[in-house]
Amino acid sequence: MRKVPQPVVVVTTARPENPEYRRGITVSSFTSIALHPFPLISFCVRKPSRASDLLHEAGQFVVQVLSSHQVQQSLAFSSPNQEGVDQFKDVPFYSDPQTHNPVLMGSVGAMHCSTHNVFVLGDHELWVAKVDRVDHGVGSMRGTRDESEPLLYHDRRYHGVGEEVFMQAFEDHTLDFRQWTHRAHVRMAWNYLREMNQEEATPLIKHGIESYYKANKDKIQFVYNETITGFYIDLIHKAVQKDKLSGRSEDDDFFEFLERYPILKDRKVIKDYYSRELLDSDDSRQQFIEPDLQPLPTVQQLANESK
Predict the structure, then answer these.
(1) What is the mean pLDDT of residues 135-151?
(2) Which has more pLDDT, 56 or 166?
(3) Cα–Cα distance measured from residue 287 to residue 152, given in angstroms and rounded to the nearest whole number
(4) How many CB atoms lie within 10 A of CB 46?
(5) pLDDT at 213 > cutoff 80
(6) Which residue stretches of the chain are H helix?
(7) Theoretical Cys-Cys bridge with 50: which of 12, 81, 85, 303, CB 3.0 to 4.6 Å?
């Protein structure tokens, strides 16, 4: 399936009695089903999720085919919906006057849909939707009908839609610097380490970090630290190896990976292993140095600490 080009699609909806309660999700397996007697499309949503709950509650939603310049929008909706967090804060959109559902600006096209049928298949729901009307590029950032190229993914190492666009944005340096958080660092390294061994992945991770910061040097001053990078590569590699031993080598969900190893979410965990004096030293910046407070955790210790 990696050889098959597919568009990146975001589904948005809102609570009927409270349109300000809205959700968006980057979906997978989008396809057209039928044209007659009325248009039908389908997409898959992981279950359980808050997005799935709201889709069931609303019964109406908008399916947007993203354009090639909407990588950031795809990223914004590829992460789990956190309660109280406005996914649309930095995303240009408008509310449809008929349904009050959010419509992303700048898409190739938006399909206003209603639920036709939902099938539970494994850990996903297959949504079959009736297309009630179509906007061709309405909501363009330039205020015109925008026939831009769709955002596609195919034939890359990264399997999931979210990972595909995340890694593309990171490698192309188009990832918004505000999204380059500790969690994003871990996500990037995880993508490399699950696809290749540690020796192959390490230089790509280091080069990627330095290259990304160089491209964003006008936004922040950055001093690369070999020891800090090596420490987190070691932890992530061990977690990936633990997953492989547990039969999770094909797991494609980064956010479930973090739930299994919450220690990786803690950017301060390195202080349990290294003193501030050592991390601030010139030697630690230039070469990897073993911890001075306690040894690096083993695979089993990492799994135990994460329980």
Answers:
(1) 56
(2) 56
(3) 39
(4) 18
(5) yes
(6) 50-58, 71-76, 161-171, 182-193, 198-215, 226-245, 254-260, 276-279, 282-286, 299-305
(7) 81
Q: Which residue has the higher pLDDT, 72 or 143?
A: 72
**Could you give the CA distance from residue 168 to residue 165 in angstroms, rounded to a whole number?**
5
What 3-state class would DSSP assign to 269? helix
Q: Is-contact 173 212, C-beta < 8 A?
A: yes
Statement: residue 261 has pLDDT above 60: yes
Q: How far separated are the first and last CA of the chain, in Å rounded?
A: 34
Distance CA 95, CA 103 (A): 6
- 207 exposure class (CB count in 10 Å sphere: 0-12, 13-18, 19+): exposed
Res. 307 pLDDT band, cuts 50 70 90: low
Cβ 30 vs Cβ 6: under 8 Å: yes
pLDDT at 46: 86
Cβ(24)–Cβ(87) below 8 Å = yes
Q: What is the spatial distance between Cα 197 and Cα 189, in angstroms, rounded to a whole number?
A: 12
What are the start and end residues of each CATH 2.30.110.10 domain in the chain? 6-153
Q: Smallest Cα–Cα separation from 194: which of 142, 251, 263, 147?
A: 251
Residue 254, token pair as written in the block: 């980064």
At residue 238's C-alpha, the angle toward residues 179 and 271, to 5°, is: 65
Q: What percent of the chain is predicted at pLDDT more than 70?
A: 84
Judge contact between 176 and 184, C-beta under 8 A: no
Tell me which fold the domain 6-153 belongs to.
Pnp Oxidase; Chain A (2.30.110)
Model confidence at 43, in pLDDT bands (50, 70, 90)? very high
